[in-house]
Amino acid sequence: MPRGELKAVRFDTNAEYENIQDPQGHYRRQFTGYACSYQLKLSFDLDTRRLAAVLGAIAASGADPEINISFTVKDPGQVSEALLTSAAANAREKAEVLCRASGVTLGQLVTIQYGCKEPEILSPTRYTMEFNDPVSFLSKSVSMPELAPEDIKLQDTASFVWEIG
């Protein structure tokens, strides 16, 4: 696996307790052990064979994981830049139309207001799989359907103010 594809996102260790009732009917907390949970993020190009191999390895591990598979783009910065470029061109085009319709001319750009909130670049496509019976899962030929995630729909907001003449 190439370096950087698998990353730890979260790691928690917590004491676990159980409420125990004594013979008098009173409850007390009794320490039962520690629970450790961690969240990993594995990123790679869309490859259904590799995804099947990863899911097979998870099923064979004996763990009882919660799995969430999401689809995004390789370079979110490039997508954000394209979105902002498109927004600026769209704003100018609409401002020019409004000025022509009003009989005025579009002047210099005075201000741009942008909230700088990065849009979440995820496809609405979700893929879930249950590992209720790993032995059954592993005994089958692990295959994945050919996936074509739904297109990512993005929007962002910026305000442009121009002089008019």
Please tell me about this protein's structure:
- It is built from three helices and four strands; from the N terminus they run ββααβαβ.
- It is elongated.
- Strand 1 and strand 2 form a beta hairpin.
- The strands form two sheets. A two-stranded antiparallel sheet has the order 1-2. Strands 3-4 form a two-stranded antiparallel ribbon.
- It has helices at about 50-60, 75-100, 135-140; strands at about 5-20, 25-40, 105-115, 160-165.
- With about 160 residues, it is of the alpha+beta class.
- It has one domain (about 45-165).
Summarize this structure briefly.
The chain has 165 residues and is an alpha+beta fold. It has helices at residues 48-60, 76-102, 134-139; strands spanning 6-21, 27-42, 106-114, 158-164. The longest helix has 27 residues, at 76-102.
The whole-number mean of residue pLDDT values reads 84
Order of helices and strands: EEHHEHE
How far apart are the termini? 61 Å
Oligomer: single chain
Number of domains: 1
Structural class category: alpha+beta
Quantity of strands, as a count: 4
Q: Please give the largest β-sheet.
A: 2 strands, antiparallel
Q: Report low-confidence residues grouped into runs of 5 or more.
A: none
Read across the widest sheet, the strand sequence of neighbours is 1-2
Helix count, DSSP H or I runs of 4 or more residues: 3
Strand share of the residues?
Answer: 25-35%
Radius of gyration: 26 Å
Query: How would you sum up the global shape?
Result: elongated
Proportion of helical residues:
25-40%
Layout of SSEs?
Blueprint: E1 6-21, E2 27-42, H1 48-60, H2 76-102, E3 106-114, H3 134-139, E4 158-164
Antiparallel strand pairs: 1-2, 3-4
